Amino acid sequence: MNLDRASAIALAQAVCESVGGRDDVDVGLFPPAVYLRDIVEVAQSSPVQVGAQNCCDQTSGAHTGEISVSMVQDVGSGLVLLGHSERRHVYGESDELINRKVHTALAQGLDVMLCLGETQEQREAGETETVCGSQLQAGLAGVEAEDLQRVHLAYEPVWAIGTGLTASPEQAQDAHAYVRGVLAGIATDDLAARTRILYGGSVKGENAADLLARPDIDGALVGGASLTPEAFLPIIPDSPEATGN
Fold first, then answer.
1. CATH code assigned to 51-243
2. How far, in Å, CA of 186 to CA of 195, rounded?
């Protein structure tokens, strides 16, 4: 719950202007639901994608406060973020609920960005791989092979979100490589190799290049640094803001 409507629109305009017509980088914005249509309209002539931060596991009916997949689609969005750490750890969303949301989104035509990651306590207990593997397997349980092609993944260590802490490039690479291996077991080596796995956890202009240079880190899921153009644009590879041009 950040930014007002005017600030969200201004941010989207700056991002779309910076990206221009580039086809060598994919950029997505996930605004609050009440601004989703506004940002879709800003980005409609741009390659920038716009996604929802969440959706309901039910298709319609009396679910006060929820947003259905069809509502997300009706305002022009084709992508949804599911399983974010705040949904899991603040609002208590279970692996089972997240899996139902994944099925509903995919069945109705939305692409999915599925998030997973461990807490500080779990990392200190040596459970990073166990937790990430379990969340991935549960989140994708029952998903058909052809639908897995519309799933992107984001590894976001909970202890590095909004704390100023960042997983080292080596830690992040190890986690991403493990997740890719688990995905290969669920699907195929080929699909796992083609699936984008983003890193999320205090990504900023100063550390993005080192993280993105790792072979299994395919992009960044940016949090706090995505709230202003000055902080967000330098993260985009080869942007004028990143290169200083």
1. 3.20.20.70
2. 12
- Is position 89 annotated as part of the catalytic site? no
User: In angstroms, what is the C-alpha Rg of the chain?
Assistant: 17
Q: What is the pLDDT of residues 142-161, one digit of tens each?
A: 999 999 999 999 999 999 88
Catalytic residue among 93, 118, 156, 176: 156
- DSSP count for the chain of H helices, then E strands: 13, 7
Spatial CA neighbour of 12 closest among 1, 36, 111 = 36
| Amino acid sitting at position 29 | L
What are the tens digits of pLDDT across the range 9-35?
A: 999 999 999 999 899 999 999 999 999
User: What DSSP string describes 21-53?
Assistant: T-SS---EE---GGGHHHHHHHHTTSS-EE-BS
103 is a catalytic site residue: no
Q: Which long-range contacts (CB under 8 A, 24 or more apart) does 131-135 make?
A: 132/175, 132/178, 132/179, 132/182, 133/178, 133/179, 133/182, 134/95, 135/83, 135/95
- Give yes or no for a contact between 47 and 66, defined as CB atoms under 8 angstroms apart: no
Compute the half-sphere exposure of residue 173: CA atoms within 13 Å on the CB side of its CA: 10
Give the C-alpha separation, 59 to 69, whole Å: 7
- Among the listed residues 84, 103, 152, 176, the single catalytic one is 84
pTM for the whole structure: 0.95
